[in-house]
Amino acid sequence: MAGWTGKVRKLLKNEDVLGWVIWGVLTLALLWPCIYFVYEYTYSTVSPATRVVSGVFVAAIAGGFLSWIVNEIMYRVKRRRKEGGKKAAKNRRKPGAR
């Protein structure tokens, strides 16, 4: 059991894999609200299959947009921490050394 959790953690450290996981989770979370939205705002003559497929499409697009925002925030936080570490290391140098 402990072997697969290490592999999953290693995979989630990859930014690309994490982005796809975030997109998938957000798409699934937005699926029912988007289908409901499409059912409410379409004509009654539209077939139910078209409504469901349209709702899934809207959920995927909205999930992609939100995951892009989350990935951008995570990237900027990681970059800021990395730059902060470089500045701290630079300040720890000996006073006379360049």
Characterization of the model:
This protein is mainly alpha-helical and 98 residues long. It has one domain (12-90). The chain is 83% helix and 0% strand. The protein contains three helices and no strands. Helix 2 (15-40) packs antiparallel against helix 3 (48-91). The longest helix is centred in the C-terminal third of the chain and has 44 residues, at 48-91. The protein is elongated and about 80 Å long. The protein starts with a helix and ends in a 7-residue tail after the last helix. The mean pLDDT is 87.
Draw up the topology in text.
Layout: H1 2-12, H2 15-40, H3 48-91
Short description:
Helices cover 83% and strands 0% of the residues.
- The best one-word shape is elongated
How would you state the average pLDDT, rounded?
87
Largest sheet: none
Output the helix-strand order. Answer: HHH
In helices, the fraction of residues equals over 70%
Radius of gyration: 22 Å
Tally of individual helices: 3
Distance between the termini: 51 Å
Q: What is the domain total for the residues? A: 1
Number of beta strands: 0
How large is the share of residues in beta strands? under 5%
Low-confidence stretches: none
Based on helices, strands and strand pairing, what is the structural class?
mainly alpha
